[in-house]
Amino acid sequence: MHHGIGFIQDLAVVMALAGVVTVLFHRLKQPVVLGYIAAGVIIGPYTPPFQLIHDEQTIQTLGELGVVFLMFSLGLEFSLRKLFKVGATAVVAALSEIVLMLWIGYEIGSAFGWSKMDSLFLGAILAISSTTIIVKALSELGLKRESFAQLVFGILIVEDILAIAMLVLLSGIAQTGELSAGIAFVTLGKLLLFMTVSLVIGILVVPRALNYVAKSQSDEMLLVSVLGFCFAFCLLVVKLDYSIALGAFLIGAIMAESRHLHRIEHLIAPLRDAFSAIFFVTIGLMLNPTVLVDYAWPIAVITIAVILGKIVSCGLGTFLAGKDGRTAMRVGMTVSQIGEFSFIIASLGLTLKVTSAFLYPIAVAVSALTTLFTPYLIRAADPLTRRVGHAMPRTVANVFGMYGQWLGSLRPASGEPTIFSLTRRIILQIAVNLAIVAAIFLGASYGAPYVTLYGSGFIEKWLPSEPMQRVVLWSGALIVSMPFLVAVYRKTKSLALLLAEISVQPAKAGRFTSAIRYAISDLVPVVSMLGVFLLVAALSSTILPPTGLLVAVLLCAALLLTVLWRWCVRIHATMQIALRETFEEQPDP
Amino acid sequence: MHHGIGFIQDLAVVMALAGVVTVLFHRLKQPVVLGYIAAGVIIGPYTPPFQLIHDEQTIQTLGELGVVFLMFSLGLEFSLRKLFKVGATAVVAALSEIVLMLWIGYEIGSAFGWSKMDSLFLGAILAISSTTIIVKALSELGLKRESFAQLVFGILIVEDILAIAMLVLLSGIAQTGELSAGIAFVTLGKLLLFMTVSLVIGILVVPRALNYVAKSQSDEMLLVSVLGFCFAFCLLVVKLDYSIALGAFLIGAIMAESRHLHRIEHLIAPLRDAFSAIFFVTIGLMLNPTVLVDYAWPIAVITIAVILGKIVSCGLGTFLAGKDGRTAMRVGMTVSQIGEFSFIIASLGLTLKVTSAFLYPIAVAVSALTTLFTPYLIRAADPLTRRVGHAMPRTVANVFGMYGQWLGSLRPASGEPTIFSLTRRIILQIAVNLAIVAAIFLGASYGAPYVTLYGSGFIEKWLPSEPMQRVVLWSGALIVSMPFLVAVYRKTKSLALLLAEISVQPAKAGRFTSAIRYAISDLVPVVSMLGVFLLVAALSSTILPPTGLLVAVLLCAALLLTVLWRWCVRIHATMQIALRETFEEQPDP
């Protein structure tokens, strides 16, 4: 009971001060996040009168829990369903924002003569807007239900995914020192693979498990199970060298498909609020106010660049994707700030020891300033649109109007099926199944050293020869992935059939039409499966058996497959239906 | 992001295992708490295959947060109002349970040849029943609304207070090695003083502040403010050398008087559930299963002693306080286990290094066993009562019946005012005001060294002479306590008047009746104030000015008082009304 006084004192100082500033900033009608950061600065080691925190390490650890809960909550609000709805517009706007801001950030850094790595991280820091700030600002202004707000949330979802990709890429660049296209491709491919597979398996398993737990009506059980899944998944992700933020976000997105989403959100909210307060305080703790004075000039430049850059890039992206000027202006002015992701990226740079110390306080200062302006900018969007509309020369306005009409004419009448929409579904299914197959073989290769390491005595006794160990591992992976391989084969066949129907027209092929069509639909899947085999062999090269044994294994597998074909089809269909059910289920109110 | 992997791994292991056992134990219809402890044993260092926790210290710290939230929640459920309702019966039952179990525990310890301190701590460990287990068991059996359950909750509240007194006393005994009546008296007096003053000031300040915060409708703000108050108060309590459990419980009890009680309970519940799970896991972590085998014999004896002892002591207490035999049996069988408080007391013994290492695992084992039996015992209460009723000889039954009738005849007809009920209120008010005055002077004495220490340069410049420093401090305390001193004077006067009316009857005093009455009502307050002065002087002896200066200060104060008398009366009345308002306000549904 008595040994934790220092810790309790730290927590008391943090929470009491946080409590005071939250009330104060609410009265001043400023975002509470700013208050937390200010509280951190007051508590921190750089400001007099004395050091108020004894054990900064423990508070930092609690702040890290804040990141987990914050990202988990973002994941819960993320929804694949919502993403499909806003779709293309959000992707275009988010991409144009991120690319432009990355470039602006990098150029500003270079202009100030900072190192390449500092400039790159500055670009990444400026690229992503703050979901927390935007959601708070919009709900405080009562605009959360407006259609432009829905679009903004879509953009934020796309940004979240791209931000995670950026986190991974930045870690890679920081470790290798440069970004080769090959490495970027492999890194992003692995990330995509990991995300796809965890989403598919997660959505199959987790919501079902939570439904079972939730039956008891006990909030405690549900909460502890949710936290159990959350931290276990985070651990897996961290073990795979991804950031804990990614893990928390993904498991949140998985749980977003649960029927009990609203109960989970309710239970997690207090944990998120308490620990994210600590997280934002720890940001202030790291902030040295003298750095802000020393770097007042870059801070001012970057703040203006963020506000103008985001309005232009995101607004333009929205407009180019076919929204009207008013919506575009509103969207641009809403996203014109940086926030929690910027801190995460900045602290990534610090922990990897590739960025200079001044970058972090600059990020915090810019975030604070842009956050301050956010509510005023959102409110100023409509008047500004009107003024711009009045001031704009008639010819320019006409060009903009014609662009909108031209875009509208491009769109197919709704309901009319295109080749694209027909094939898209099949291609998506093939991709997902391929991803699972790839993940199974990658997992087997990744796990191989552990198996031989931990079970060494046991395995060496029964399987002394190294090639035989490989045979067992590789055939195991093959058997597990069989239902998915069968599915890939069958989907490829139907895709080939479909394409053959379209491309081989009777007018040209004459009486050979159906023969050619069948030839294509038989040949394409076989060739594809050969490609799949080469891919799998490349991915699992570390556990691939020697050629002779490999052929034996493949022959056995082929034999097994003739027996198990129907079972494979059935098990895959069951999984697919289960996935679709979970996916289409609406959460309980 | 990357430095906390060990910590995340620990948390993942703890929460994932907790999640699994919570579901498992729910299926087995056993209390989840047992599952958490079992999970702790599995994770812990004493069981193979390998150590699953890297940084036990951090998990222990989080478990300590669990104690804070657990005690805070208990405090929230504690209510002075509820306590007054069940009143006497609960006090009698709880006292008889605690005294008997303390004695039984001490005797068992002595019989096994354990040291005095071990035996004493064993007694304390067995004395208090587990609120968590009882609330869960009763709500799972659907008996929460029955009248005996209300009585049980009353007993638990009284036990909580007595447990806290016991914690304080045990710390004292552990440090001095023995319990002298004088030290016990002073310790309990100080505790009572501290609790009274914090409750009064807390109930005046905290619910009002929370009402202000709650106006914003923001759950985040309310939660952070609640946590701010909670940890700040815990810090104060820890600084005064009380346990953090006491602090969390008291601030919870203070917030229980807030109008927003239910919102606060709702917000705290997830924090409590998450961290109390960790707390119970840490209990398992400390449990060495081999100790259980070595001490199987004491564990069995103590388990039987707890169950039989509590049924007899608490049941008998309930019966003696005037309830029927069936209720008494139900109450006795409901409270027949030990729980969280026992762990807190056991770990107190360990951290103070006065108990042997085996006491803690024994406490955990006995708690686990008695917790297991609780639901069955509650269900067995009614059948057992019937069987006992049948088996009881007629004469014994008659004696019990007559006892009930005799008790009933003792009670005054309701509504009839007695001297006791008339004076009780005034005496209570005098006591509370005296407590506040005492706390102000004690606080000034306690704070004096800090003032001279921190402000040393400043104070020495303006007040070089030590006696003048005392004068300033002491007169400051006097001025602050003036409204309460005036209140004490006025209440004493009306008490004296009341007593004079009753004791000086015209039949005896004849024509001097009113003169004597007035003399008493004038004299008693003056004599009392002299007593108050002596008390205050004794409490503030370290800052009491030398006699000459003291007389001067008192004269000045008297002069000031003539001017401020009306103001003092008014400010005190305002505070009293504010207190009563908060107290009588019902929480929002």
Automatic annotation (TrEMBL), chains A, B:
Similarity comment: Belongs to the monovalent cation:proton antiporter 2 (CPA2) transporter (TC 2.A.37) family.
Cross-referenced Gene3D superfamilies: 1.20.1530.20
Cation/H+ exchanger transmembrane domain ranges (all copies): 16-377
Keyword Lyase recorded: no
Localization annotation: Membrane
Protein name in UniProt: Cation:proton antiporter
Topology in membrane: Multi-pass membrane protein
Transmembrane intervals: 6-25, 32-53, 59-76, 83-104, 119-139, 151-173, 179-209, 221-238, 274-293, 299-321, 358-378, 430-451, 471-489, 523-543, 549-569
Superkingdom of origin organism: Bacteria
One Pfam family matching this protein: Na_H_Exchanger
Metal-binding as UniProt keyword: no
Keywords for the protein's UniProt record, in alphabetical order: Membrane, Transmembrane, Transmembrane helix, Transport
